[in-house]
Amino acid sequence: MKRKSAPLPGDTLKSIAAAGGISSATLSRVLNHPEKVRPDLRARAMALLAEAGYVPHGAARSLASRKTRTMGAIIPTVDSALFAKLVDGMQQAIHEHGYQLLLASTNYSPAREAGEVRALIERGVDAMMLVGRSRDPELYELLHSKGIPFVTTCHYDAADPWPMVGWDNAAAAQRIADYLLDIGHRRLGVIAGISKDNDRAADRVAGFTRALKRRGIDLPPQYVIEKPYTVPEARRAMATLLRLPEPPTAVMCGNDILAYGALQECLWQNLRVPEQISITGFDNIEMAAHCRPGITTLNVPAFELGQRAANILLAADADTPPENVCIELELIVRDTTAPPRSSTSARLGS
């Protein structure tokens, strides 16, 4: 049987389809609605298009379908292993359906986020992923008025009337508090992220405080320090806690970067962790498992969450309303936590 010659770049879909032995309708569907084509046929069609050097006319397709096949993701910072994993998961999921990702960061600024949302709308994105819920309600109204589906991530509140993928930050912090209390700690401290315009940081402090109060333990203001998510700032915060007349025997940190900085300060001051002081993190980034001692933390499956957020957006045109996703974070106990020793406070105060 004579093999059909490969089509040259610039051939029409019809001639490419004829040369490849599939229908032009299938090729068109792969280009415009890849999610509706079974994976093996989609892969075959994409290989044929690539071999032909075919480049679809994006502008014409956008005008015809009113879609640009792009999605936006706005994250607080690109300097975060957690958000990098989140975006990676989203990008891989939408790429399989023929979408491209436009990324923006806000440096935790609501005004900057508002500008990025408007810029992405002007670019014609078909859907958008946001982080958290701390923003001007007018932004939600703007997205609704433009008919742009969106999903929020890294938080969960059943009262919020929009799709979300995340976890209850207050409940997660309560779990850390209960763990530390259960192993015997009674004087605790917190090194948190800046809570202004960051609902995740605020919810974690609130949840930790409530858990202690429920067990009859106060958390005085001087035992709670807010800092940017950097190692030097975490070291300064831990140094401040260690200078208290009665330093904490355990410190919950708002993420693993803060926990690592707190750990380094303790080691620099020749304090043994966890024998003299316990430290916990949040996120379970790779560094938490490989530093010494390994950091006790909560595991956030960021890549999976990014994929699930993408799936909600990909299904936004379906008749079935999206289901919110709330996960329970797993506590990973490593080597920075242990029961307190009776003489710990005396040694810390020396």
UniProtKB/TrEMBL annotation:
Against SMART domains, the record matches this protein to: HTH_LACI
Q: Which residues form the HTH lacI-type domain?
A: 12-65
Please give one Pfam family short name.
Peripla_BP_3
Q: Which UniProt keywords apply?
A: DNA-binding, Transcription, Transcription regulation
SUPFAM superfamilies from the UniProt entry: lambda repressor-like DNA-binding domains (SSF47413), Periplasmic binding protein-like I (SSF53822)
| A GO MF term | DNA-binding transcription factor activity
Q: What PANTHER family does its record include?
A: LACI-RELATED TRANSCRIPTIONAL REPRESSOR, TRANSCRIPTIONAL REGULATORY PROTEIN
* Protein name from the UniProt record: HTH-type transcriptional repressor CytR
Q: Which organism is it from?
A: Achromobacter insolitus
Q: What is the organism lineage in this UniProt record?
A: Bacteria, Pseudomonadati, Pseudomonadota, Betaproteobacteria, Burkholderiales
Which gene does this sequence derive from?
A: cytR_1
